[in-house]
Structures are given as structure tokens and as C-alpha cells.
Amino acid sequence: NAGVTQTPKFRILKIGQSMTLQCTQDMNHNYMYWYRQDPGMGLKLIYYSVGAGITDKGEVPNGYNVSRSTTEDFPLRLELAAPSQTSVYFCASRLAGGGNSPLHFGNGTRLTVT
Amino acid sequence: DQQVKQNSPSLSVQEGRISILNCDYTNSMFDYFLWYKKYPAEGPTFLISISSIKDKNEDGRFTVFLNKSAKHLSLHIVPSQPGDSAVYFCAASEAAGNKLTFGGGTRVLVKP
Fold first, then answer.
1. Looking at beta carbons, which residues of chain A come within 8 Å of B36?
2. CA distance B96 to chain A (A)
3. Which residues of A touch B9 (CB under 8 A)?
4. pLDDT digit string (tens) for chain A, length 114 residues
5. ω into residue A83 within 30 of 0, thus cis?
6. Does residue A79 contact residue A63 with C-beta atoms inside 8 Å?
7. CA torsion, points B1, A94, A42, A67, in degrees to nearest 10?
8. Residue A43: which of B74, B89, B78 has the closest Cα?
């Protein structure tokens, strides 16, 4: 059981470039999330999805886009990379909403924009 | 507006002693609280949780205490072990909420 898989593990982008961070889960979870963690900081929610075809903004959505065409996949798109998007990005999933359904995280994608 | 705060960015403790991590929140609609543990180069992993109808939940060496009136929770690790050295995140959720709100984390170092 792979859980939540994120690719790539590392990436360096030049300012203005675009890329897609991939996330897939094999637990048949309905809910999926993208968080970013800046150095020394906590996790901030970028976007989330409660099921295929449904997405919603989190705290810091500017500069990002998402789609959820299948239950398994939740890619995060950066269109015009900026240095402020240098961060570690974590994808997570859980079976249901509500507090008593813990998140399962991937191992992250470390992105540097120069 | 930080709804979940961990005011101690780091904590150093001797092996075998107690580690106490603190977390404060401002949103009175939060109904469920979770602690996550994170090692370098890995994603956070779920550790323990507590519902607002309880004031204590215990799982082995880990105990979480909730004081709703003070909007405060704490995680106790007894006894602390070197493998507990990690960053610990407090998180909170509303009862029917879709989102988890995280604190800034506390880095724990357990010295042998």
C-alpha cells in the first residue's frame, strides 16, 4: 500500500516557468489537500478537494491552480513561478471530512524558484 | 490571524524525562484537535487526537490534555526517547469542517 505519492521530490524552477506537482493516493480517499511549509513555519492550506470534480481554495491559493478529475489524483499547477513560491509542498488525503479523520501525507516536493 | 499557535519553536529535554508541548487556539468552533509528528525529509504523520467532549486522551507514552475554557491543549511525552526528536504540529478542525488548521510547529530534541 503506497499511500500518498508525490512527484517530483525536488525541483528548481526559474522565475516565470511553470510546472505541475503530482499527487496520487491509493486509499480511495475522497478528500485531498495541498499544503505548503515555508522554512521554520507551519503548514498553510493552498487548495483542497472533497471529491472528484470539486475543488476549493484554502488560505494561500494565489499563484496556484488545481484539478480533480479522478479520486486518486490531485495535481497542483504553478503557472508563473515566483521566488515567494519557494517552499516544501505536501499533498495529503483522508477518507472523510470532520475532525476525527486524520490526514495522511506524502513525503513532499521541495521547490526552489530562482 | 493565526488561529492555532505553538508559542515554543523548540524544546530540548533529557532522555527519560517528560516533554510538554503546548498549543493555543482562538476559534471556539474548533471541535477536534490532532498532533502530528514530522521527521526531516518526510511528511507529517498522525500521532494522537482528542475530541472537545474529552479533556484527556492517552496512547502509550503520549497523552493529550484539552482545556476548552482556556482554549489550550498540551501533548505530554513520557518518557522521552531519542527517536522522539522531531517537529510536532498541533492541528484543529471544526466538527463538520473540511479543513485542518495547523500551528507553526515545535522542534523537540531529546538528548541521550
1. 103
2. 5
3. 40
4. 689 999 999 999 999 999 999 999 999 999 999 999 997 788 999 999 999 999 999 999 999 999 999 999 999 999 899 999 999 999 999 988 777 788 999 999 999 999
5. no
6. yes
7. -80
8. B89
